[in-house]
Amino acid sequence: MNGVKGVVFPFCAAICLLVLLYKVRDIRIHRKDPALVALLVAFSCKGASFALSTPSVSAAVDARTGIPNLGALGIHLFGGVASSAAILIAIAYWVYPPDEACRKAFWRLVSSALCAAVMLTMWFVAGSAGGGRATHYLLQQAHRPPVTVYLLVYVTAFGSGMVEIIRLCWRFGRVAGRQWLRRGLYATGIGAAAYLVYCIDRASAVVAVQFGLNPLRWELLTPLANGIGISFLAVGLTMPSWGQATSEWHRKVRNFIHYQRLYALWRALTEAHPHVVLEPQHSATFARIMPGNIGYRLYREVIEIQDGLLALRPYMDPGIAARARQSARQTGLSGEALRAAVQATVLRQALWAKQAAPGMRRTGDGPPAVQPYASRSGDYGAEVAWLLSVARAFSNLPSSRRSSS
């Protein structure tokens, strides 16, 4: 078991260090933000606790100081009492008005200080009664009354904090207006639930020893619950700050992909009608790879495609549209896929017609070959999705008249 802990707990400490390095950058700008300060304290305490939880480190601390089980005391005070209080304070400042959050933070600090005082007293009493150093302090000495009180106060302080975190995250996660704050609260709640399992496991040791059971048999639950708990807490408590940047990068990547998928359709239309291009210099190959402001470039691409389709309508043949519709239905297409296939076929034939006879126009007062797309709600995303369907169908068409015959 020490081998597992020797791997898992340093990894957990590294997670805490990464969070600290990530959040400490904000201290210059938000120096007076109590939620940020509380987060820094929480992950500092958790990191110290995980470092001490590494068997070789706690043994070295006890040996260097000459005080048996000092490392265990640090694990429980830092990782249980102090860190849970700091996390609750951070969440309180996220979800409550400042005055109410300050009041709740004060009482949380008072209750945590009382728990720490009781634990410290019981630790001194247990140490003065002898017993020496224990590799697993809570489990191997749970039968001793001072350690029993110490353990129960510890799991009560830690567990009640996790229950309160779960309650706050569930309550305010449902009504949080910001998407990434809501996700962060839910992830934090999952991490707290994992730690609650750990607290229940530790509390069960008091009962287990009374029945002659050895809690060390299921000690694997400790590194497992701690690893899951700190991972979700680290993600959840930092998600409101990095989530928005993630959404922005996701939007840019999605727009770039859409831009590339529409490029062949845009190029075919703008070569036939160069006047629809607002900025001709962006038609170069380099501009396709490095379009600059991708949101703006995609927007211009969509507008220029629509303008090109409108300019090409005089060359569109209703007869071609009818035959394309019948052929598409025979292949099993329906709905938007059928409309996109018809639009692409009519467009290809219109481009060929304009190239063959630039001055020729479709005559007659009948309806156009295909109706232009118009979103009922003016949804730009729906318009892009439709043009992507047309571009996909257009790219699947034969590249020459001979191959299409």
Automatic annotation (TrEMBL):
Domain DUF6545 residue range list: 255-395
The keyword Transmembrane appears for this protein: yes
InterPro entries, per the entry: DUF6545, MAB_1171c-like
Alphabetical UniProt keywords: Membrane, Transmembrane, Transmembrane helix
Record-annotated membrane-spanning stretches: 6-24, 36-53, 73-96, 105-127, 147-168, 180-200, 220-242
NCBIfam families: MAB_1171c_fam (NF042915)
Protein name as annotated: DUF6545 domain-containing protein
The species this protein was found in: Streptomyces hygroscopicus
